[in-house]
Write a structure and sequence with these properties.
about 900 residues, Palm domain of DNA polymerase, alpha+beta, globular, seven-stranded antiparallel beta sheet, Nucleotidyltransferase, domain 5, eight-stranded mixed beta sheet
Length: about 900
């Protein structure tokens, strides 16, 4: 390998007879190590050697990428935090021109507080409040209560310490805004927007606004042409969120590997008793490095197995290795990991302390409920990609499993390095290759498609008014809550209490068909099983957000109290059968309706259009595409949060109204489609599948929807053919050959490999249908043959244990499974009885058996143990979904005589 660099780092003071000599001899024993010859301690070695100075002074946190400042000319605000030691909020800015994190401590005297309805003059009568060591003062404030439509005179109780708020709020009859985290309160009160550019002057941050292109201003003016003054002002503030360029931040991806004597066991993070044997580091400015630990009886291995383009440095001291990791990451303001909160960073932190390093040397720290670095920021991509709104709306459900391998394969087309042995048993070269790929994939997930993910994070920060390290770890409900609170504070509105909302707006009048919900959801039209050609899919663009806008739905406008809204200004919300469920006040624009509606219109009428404008530079179009994607993530999740009980603004009557109106719109559109002669095969929530439609009829239907409901119905996609099974289960082949698989379980992680392969083969066969009766009959025959072959393989036990293994992850420690013991937990307990250590996060491989437990861990099983009937049932549940459209009965597969009643529809 040309250009290969291998360094050996010696612990300070190591002599010829010490550990360094054994390390050098160890590396020298690699005959294929083709690097420079250097003489060290009179020993000729075929490596280049760099001696690491492991003094504390060299590695102390003094790096020039972080600085405490009193003033600032211009930098991006990326986070707000609270220092108990300083008793102040501090802000972290990033200056991307100088690659510097600037930390500024509040100079305005802002303090924690909460609000109560006890008059200011009577607060002094509450002795425990007045005499509390943290009590500072009480202020009279006026707040507008959206629930009652009245201005209220209230008291603000100001304290020194945020921890005093939960203590003192219990001493007053009623308290508002007492559960908001203080660092968020600070942002709300000062109108600060994370992700935007600020300067600091005269002890206070000020906004630095970007110049807005004339073309964008014109499009925004079209969006709010007929809006009132308040809506136009909101739009003018939003425009800066989307037109300010994102920071270009230096970042480094980190991944660690830890020795463990037990295969498959994840080392205990708290105890950190085992050595770190390898750390891979990949930056976006060219650094590609693996730091490895030399261990007794571990070979260097074949140099050809080393990761290409990486520098490898081998250490004889774990302590020096960790110090070198800290030295490197101190040069980068942003550290990227995959599961760094749960493992990599806390293990590095705790292992450093176990080895006797001083706290001041370790740049890793706990912040709130996550792990960060003192001089900058840390993003855990596992947390970010696990956010359902990111998975479903930003990336269209491209990945199912939330593992590095699954996400990288879906978004990058790359996978992890496969290894058969335990990580602890790999050679240095193999370990470096494995470790390097994980770090490389982690970095690429933030840099692919021109920094797509990083830009998405910045835009969601701006929308949610939330710090970088919070927004990448919180669900979309937290994003929406933060924006709502920020807007309430800006407008002088009182943020309502959860108990008040439940009492006033908690009535629902429809029954849920799906367990776990309090109200009826979307309408689903059952398909007629079969294969259909020339199918067009119509989609209601952002149906639920559009309904929120058009019907002015918000927590304060739904079912208003008597006298707050005139009778002529009330409209009724009816279900698909005409039953009145709720009323909505239309005389005042609801805050939810305003924000969601405005974002929806800006996305559709401005940024979706600009993202497709071929006259713009590619980089700008790419940015606008991320802008519209970020808004899509936000607005598409805006309805659902109001139906979740844990959401602070939980309003089930609002959520019920949205779904009821959705069903009303769909059923009305179905009736109109029938009137126009269109044949609707299937419908789900906001989509209609229409069989062989006439273009003129489609245009009439789209126009009718716009005129009747002020909603946009669009042609979403066209299929050459679609195979329908049950509702929410279909396989469609697009005109460009792309295959859409919806609801079918054949590719799920816990489906045995043997069944997965048959599923893939069946999908390939269906995609090859060319539209002729002969092709259909041939595919039907091939489908039967493929499934029958699998059936016979199972019956004849023609498989390996790996072919039929199920894979399920332990989501919690074995000891916490008390009420019920899932099948994979039974297998895990078997492994423990045989001395194999398993713990939370481990993937258990098991097979279903005829034994008493009905399961065996794959390490303990034999082929004769397999319960064939269990696997035939699993095969049936997966593949029958794909046989149903072709009218193939399961009895035909199992050997019985069936009727070939396949119906060709063309």
């Amino acid at each position: 390998m040309e250009g290969l660099i291998i360094k050996v780092s010696l612990s300070r003071g190591a002599g010829r007879r010490g550990r360094s000599r054994s390390l050098l001899e160890y590396v020298r024993s690699s005959e294929k190590c083709r690097v420079v010859e250097v003489r060290v301690n009179d020993v000729l070695v075929k490596v280049s050697v760099s001696t690491v100075n492991s003094t504390i002074r060299e590695y102390h946190l003094h790096d020039n990428c972080c600085e405490i400042v009193n003033s600032l000319d211009g930098a991006y605000l990326l986070g707000s935090y609270y220092s108990g030691k300083a008793a102040k909020v501090y802000l972290k800015f990033y200056d991307d021109k100088n690659n510097k994190v600037c930390i500024w401590y509040d100079k305005t005297g802002h303090l924690p507080y909460f609000i109560t309805n006890v008059p200011p003059e009577r607060i002094s009568e509450i002795e425990k409040v007045r005499n509390d060591s943290s009590f500072v003062r009480v202020e009279a404030v006026r707040k507008y209560d959206l629930l009652t439509g009245k201005w209220l005179r209230l008291s603000k109780i100001v304290v020194k310490d945020p921890q005093a708020v939960p203590r003192l709020r219990k001493l007053v009859p009623k308290a508002w805004e007492a559960k908001i985290k203080y660092h968020d309160n600070y942002m709300f009160d000062n109108g600060l927007v994370p992700g935007m550019m600020y300067g600091v002057r005269n002890g206070k941050p000020y906004s630095i606004e970007a110049k807005i292109p004339d073309a964008i201003i014109k499009l925004f003016e079209e969006v709010v042409r007929d809006a009132d003054k308040g809506l136009r002002e909101t739009a003018s503030r939003l425009i800066h969120l989307f037109e300010t360029r994102p920071p270009r931040i230096k970042r480094i991806a980190l991944d660690i590997e830890v020795y463990t004597p037990f295969r498959g066991r994840i080392p205990d993070v708290e105890k950190a008793q085992y050595p770190i044997i390898s750390v891979a580091l990949v930056s976006n400015d060219g650094l590609r490095k693996v730091l490895a630990l030399a261990r007794e009886d571990v070979r260097f291995g074949d140099v050809k197995q080393l990761p290409e383009g990486f520098e490898l440095e081998v250490f004889d001291s774990e302590r020096s290795l960790i110090l070198e990791v800290f030295r490197i990451i101190n040069q980068y303001p942003l550290v990227i990991t995959f599961n760094g909160d749960g493992f990599d960073l806390p293990y590095l932190h705790n292992r450093a302390l176990v080895l006797g390093l001083d706290h001041d040397v370790v740049p890793i720290e706990n912040v709130r409920d996550f792990v960060s670095i003192r001089h900058g920021f840390h993003i855990d991509l596992y947390k970010f990609f696990s956010i359902e709104a990111i998975q479903n709306y930003a990336f269209g459900g491209a990945y199912k499993d939330k593992t590095l391998d699954a996400i990288a394969q879906a978004l990058l087309g790359e996978t992890k390095v496969r290894v058969e042995e335990s990580i602890s048993d790999l050679t240095i070269a193999e370990l470096a290759n494995y470790n390097a790929r994980d770090a490389e994939l982690t970095m690429k997930l933030t840099t692919f498609s021109n920094d797509l993910v990083w830009k998405l994070m910045i835009l969601i920060m701006r929308l949610a008014k939330m710090s970088l390290e919070d927004v990448t770890r919180r669900r979309v409900s937290a994003w929406i809550k933060n924006l709502m609170y920020w807007e309430h504070r800006r407008r002088g509105y009182l943020i309502p209490n959860e108990e008040d909302l439940r009492q006033i707006k908690g009535v629902v009048k429809t029954a849920a068909k799906v367990g776990g919900k309090r109200y009826a959801g979307a309408i689903v039209i059952d398909p007629i099983p079969g294969v259909y050609f020339n199918v067009t899919v119509l989609d209601f663009a952002s149906l639920y957000p559009s309904i929120i806008k058009v019907w002015n739905l918000s927590y304060e406008t739904i079912d208003p109290p008597k006298g707050l809204c005139g009778e002529k200004d009330l409209i009724e919300v009816k279900d698909e059968k005409g039953k009145v469920l709720h009323t909505v006040c239309m005389s005042r624009r609801g805050i939810t309706s305003e924000l969601v509606g405005l974002l929806r219109d800006i996305r559709v009428k401005v940024y979706k259009r600009m993202a497709k404008d071929s006259n713009l530079p590619e980089e700008l179009r790419s940015w606008y595409d991320v802008v519209q994607s970020a808004m899509k993530v936000y607005i598409n999740a805006s309805y659902g949060v109001f139906g979740h009980e844990k959401f602070p603004l939980y309003t089930p009557s609002l959520a019920e109204s949205v779904t009821a109106l959705g069903r009303y719109v769909i059923t009305s559109t179905l009736a109109k489609a029938s009137e126009l002669g269109l044949k609707v095969l299937y419908g789900d929530t906001d989509s209609l599948f229409i069989w062989n439609p006439q273009e003129e009829a489609l245009r009439k239907l789209i126009k009718w929807v716009e005129e009747s409901f002020s909603l946009d119905l669009e042609v979403d996609k066209a299929y050459k053919h679609v195979a329908f099974a049950l509702k929410k289960n279909y396989l469609g082949i697009r005109e460009d050959g792309k295959i859409d698989v919806k609801g079918l379980v054949g590719k799920k992680k816990n489906v045995p490999k043997l069944v997965q392969e048959a599923f893939t083969k069946v999908v390939e066969l269906i995609s090859g249908i060319d539209g002729t009766p002969v092709s259909l009959e041939k595919v039907k025959k091939d489908l039967k043959d493929t499934v029958q072959n699998l059936y016979y393989r199972l019956k004849n036990r023609d498989f390996t244990l790996e072919d039929v293994a199920f894979r399920t992850t332990l989501n919690k420690p074995i000891e916490e499974y008390r009420k019920t013991t899932p099948i994979h937990v039974k297998a895990a307990k078997q492994l423990r009885r045989y001395g194999v250590m398993v713990s939370k996060g481990d993937t258990i491989l098991y097979v279903k058996t005829k034994t008493r437990d009905k399961v065996k861990a794959i390490q303990l099983a034999k082929l004769d143990d397999i319960d064939i009937n269990e696997y035939i049932d699993a095969m049936k549940s997966v593949l029958q979904q794909l046989l149903l459209p072709f009218s193939i009965e399961w009895e035909e597969i199992a050997g019985s005589i069936g009727l070939y009643n396949f119906i060709v529809r063309k």
